[in-house]
Amino acid sequence: MSVRTEPGTVTWADVNRDVERTVGMPGNTYFAWMCVVALTLAAGVVAWTYQIYTGMGAAGKRTPQMWAMYITTFVFWIGIGHAGTLISAVLYLFRAKWRTSIYRGAEAMTVFAVMTAGLFPLIHAGRMWFAYWLTPYPNQRYLWPNFKSPLVWDVFAISTYLTISVVFFLVGLVPDIAALRDRSTGIKKKVYTVMAMGWEGSDTQWKHYRRGYGLLAALATPLVLSVHSVVSFDFAMALVPGWHSTLFAPFFVDGAIFSGFAMVLVLIIPMRYYFNWYPYITDKHLDAMAKLTLTTSLVLTYFYACEVFTAWYSGDHFERASVFAKATKQYAWAYWTMYFCNSVVPLILFWKKARTNTVILYVVSILVLIGMWFERFNIIVPGLAHDFYPYTWGTYVPTITDSTIIVGSFAWFFILFLGFIRVMPSLSIVEVKEVLPHPLKHARHGGGH
Amino acid sequence: MSGIDRRSFFRIVAASGAATAAAGCGPTAEKLYPYVSPPENIVPGVAAYFATVCRECPAGCGVLAKNREGRVIKLEGNPDHPVNGGGLCIRGHAALQGLYHPDRFRGAVVDGKFAPWESAEKILADKLGALARAKQGGKIALVTGLETGSLARLLDEWAKALGARPRIAYEPLGLEAIRAANRASFGRDAVPEYAIEEAGYLVSFGADFLETWLSPVGYAAAFAKMHAFSGGKAGTFVHVEPRLSMTGANADEWVRNAPGTEGPLALAMLKVIVDEGLVAPGVDARALAGAVQGVDVAAVATQSGVPADTIKRVAHALGASKTGLVLGGGAAVSGTNATDMLQAINLLNVAIGAVGKRVRFGGETVRPGTYADMLALTQAMAKGEIEVLILGDVNPVYAMPPKAGFAEALAKVPMVVSLANRPSETTAKAHLVLPALHWLESWGDQVAEAGVVGLMQPAMGPVEMGGKPVDGKSVGDILLSVGRQALGLAAEPGKGPLQTPTFGDFVKAEWAAIAKDQAKGRPFAEFWEESLRHGGSWRETPAPAPALRPEALRVKAEPARLEGDGTYALLVFPSARFYDGRGADRAWLQEAPDTMTQVTWDGWVEIPAETAKRLGVARGDLVALTSPHGRVELPAYPVETLHPGAVAVATGQGHAYPGAYAQARGLNTGANPVALLGAVPEASSGALPYLGVKVTLARGAGRRSLAIPQGTFDQDHREIAQHIGLGAARELELRGKPPEHASHPSMYPPVKYPDHRWGMTVDLDRCTGCEACVVACVTENNVPVVGKEQVAYGRDQHWLRLERWEEGPAARPENIFLPMFCQHCGVAPCEPVCPVYAAYHTRDGLNGQVYNRCVGTRYCGNNCPYHVRRFNWFYYHWPSPLDLQLNPDVTVRQLGVMEKCTMCVQRIIEGKDHARDAGRRVKDGEIRTACQQTCPTQAISFGDLKDDKSEVAKLSRSARGYHVLEELGTRPAVTYLKKVVREGSGKPAAGGHKA
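YS: structure for the whole thing
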């Protein structure tokens, strides 16, 4: 590890050096992590293969918990995918300067999270080999998907989101890739050349780039709200007690941002440490992230209260019984874990020291991720475990197969992310430079003395 | 030219193409062979029906075997048959799994090895011949199940010809005490017919007539006639039993008595009737008064734990009803005093004037031998008096108490021959197995009751196993052939005993005699054909009231003596699913839940809830029962309703089937409660006292979870199964249904049904919970068996489930049985959520499910509030030859698709096709679903709701009609009719429900 650079002293040259350093030959620690992640992923792939071969019975699903951990994790990853766009697009439009040093990582996280989430509809489908039937494609039988089904809306929402985030991500990379291109050789150079799309850094290019980037940001912004709203419709449009609620869209969007911020913290805190990016990702950044996490947590708590209140106030027997069962029956531990992680733990962030202490922040973020996973779990599994028909009430138990697939999905995400940080600039050279003092101005200014 | 010519090129291409194709698809492609010469009467795609008689229990119900392309694929009740009138029970349906049992013997077995049939027969014939020639025929013994027709005569003729011991017809649940009591009371060694349908007030002392007692299908139908609410009237049924059986759960009042006190209770009731002067006119009240002189109602009340008020009230109502009927003597309450109890019941029936009217002694019928006969045979075997023992389709090694020593005695018999066609505990000990053909493959007949002779015909050829038909003959043919060989006779018809060439000819010859009596001058050929088509011949027989013998007035009023010093009386109750154990090797029956406990696949012991609490035993914890005769360990099932001084175990499980399929499928589950019983028969009847021991209860080691698909019996105020008081029902009937106020606004235009809107009604007042519909549906719709583990985990595949719901106090709940299946909602929650239109609404109002289109998102399964959709979690298999039973009109579903009740869409299509061919509209009642067809009480109707005059439309407009979870606005096509409960008599009021 190189000497810790003090914040406020970096120059443009430092930025170039510090970022390029990350794409060099990685060390042993990196390979060790890669091995762990790759083996986990392999286990996940084996488990999925086994499930395809034996049938969905390999996963712990039953009647009526016909959805369980896969949809839970699907919603979880879609949620994670939200913070990236929020940071890169929304904060860009609001000209929040502190975003510059974290947005690249967050954006990559978004793309990879959506790519992970996208696996789950396939993993979940009983006949995944026919999953393409959910897309409207011309066919001689004139068979179209059912546009009344929220699952078809999902297909559109997620594919749109993935497309826009990938484009936004790649466009944002162009000037940085160009910088790497100019300093690399061999196969790397070829790849970077293609990705840089002929970037020269001319004034005209910059003018067009700025405008295009702004437009893309404007295009991506509504998606932050729409995608998770649509995902929430999977539940809100259904009849199940505890699902059928107009609360779901904002509730899900807020939860998504909440978990997304936690995930960003989980990723950038180690990156800052390993890449020695203290000058770029400062305590100020962490503080800002923590504040947003706290805010979204408070909003989420409000939604939780609303959910319980509505169930009680509606007078609907099924709703009341559902909430009561979640809080007291076989899944109560999951319910209270959720409250603890999502509503209680983040309260520590009211304390300024906690917002800048990386250890506390890291633990809080991990707990928030666990809590948010359980939030989705609580909607799906205990919700279905105690719905309309008492005959079928019962308990879902995870199996080795579905647990391995879930863990494998994390490995898939991390293998993508680990790969990314070694081949792409995970800190935006261009945007970080923008918030640094201009070297020429500085020189001229200094020269005047 | 190169080395390859055009022909070889094509050969290679074809071969590799075929290889790729074959390797590509999972299950190997089946070979299709065309018929060289098409068999007669078989039109591909059109079912042929053969009328025959169900032989799964002695009731003798008429069945129609549905044959498609040479295979029987379903059994249906014969609507013309006087015993069952079109209904069929759960065991009747499962007969097919006996027919197609994968462990079925493919041929003769000699000392555990397959042998050519002729040589196996010769071994037996030589031995028999040697004994007959040596005039040692007395060393030959023959034990069969109950046979009442031609086969019985042939068997007896055979035994006589060889000089063998008299044949024993062994039925473990033989209800010998009924005959013994009738012998004592009326001098008639017979089981009468009980005209339950004509009773207005029915009292049963432990007679489980809706489950196994005598003729459960016929009696269920009769019970519905007397008890179901119709036109403002409904009869009353009181059931007396220490345990709440399914029959008891159907009673308007269930009286819980101390085990073994039925006899004293019956006499106490008689006393009340006599004292109150309610004895029917024409009956000698003075004589009856003498019979109950020493009876003290208060003492009986203390003894039996039944309040004196209850005894008086029930007795009064019974006596005052003028149309009373008393039944008694189910196996579960048959103890050392069974004959006395039944004699007391006879007196009750005499007192209320039921004998001769509702208790009818027609002509004599053949009834089984007794357990005591078997015991005598066992002793003879043990003494080495038996050289050859021929056992029909009986399993005494399993069914007799181990203390009787049958298994040990069997070892002393030099040659044990079994004619059973499936391996059992008994065949495992046989030296020679000559597997008889299944009754669906055989000729025969069965006298169900006086004047009712059912005719059996082969409904198919012998089942093919491993590519060729099983080697076997019917029991009659085996005996004819073996007997002739032994006696050195030739087949010369009319020349003497055993000389009819085949058993089929023998039956026909017997029927020639019946024809003299019943053909009424028609030629025999015509009579024969008609009988074949109808499934038999029946006529009314006079039933004069028998006179009461004076000795019959001396009835002892002692409770049953229970052996052992345990604290709990052991109630061994007959299983409605496995009967005496013969049904346990059928996976369908193992997977169909027991109605009261909803337990599948395993045995259990019912223990009183307070005992469970005291011992700290939860459901599924192993409990050891120890009697002076044995010990069994079973998972506990605590129940609130059971008498605190009793524990209960069902008969039928705890087998040791040696077959590979039985072992792999887990059919050897549970424990046999007979192992706890003593071997001493009841003195007067020779019956095995199923109520005979006391046991001690102790916690066993560990637990074995029970597979119970029903999560809870408490509906949690959800009004899924609704009931209404009798008074309120009458009032509703007069006033009609209150108009509906709910509005169902929709953004979509209402669905139009241009031709039909199929719908169903289920009358909960008629449903007895017998589960016949569950297995009928399984049979019709190729529903797979998934096994204990999967059922326990909520992955049973049943399209129709029979739910039991409890209302009111846990110790005496009102039980409502509710068959639940796809409700075919008009506004179906499953349909809009399917992303690919696999779930869709047909123009006939069905919720269609396109298996081929289904991707398996399971969204529909979540969104169905009734949770009747079933997902194919795995590939399900039908081990050969069970696959031969599959209905070719119904798709066998693939892995990963959703399925559910289709309202038997294949039958709807067939009915519509018929109507179209005939150029008319579908007639009401022409299409019947499998569940509707089998229902003994006709609780289910199906039809076109658009046709105002259809039965289903009328019923769905019934004032008692409601929809399950109506408030969700799903507008189901299935209407349930509320169960009608009697107010008072300790019942919960019908309040709290929408009336």
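YS: worth flagging: Residues 1-5, 442-449 of chain A have pLDDT under 50 and may be disordered.
IM: good catch. Also The two ends of chain A are 36 Å apart (CA to CA).
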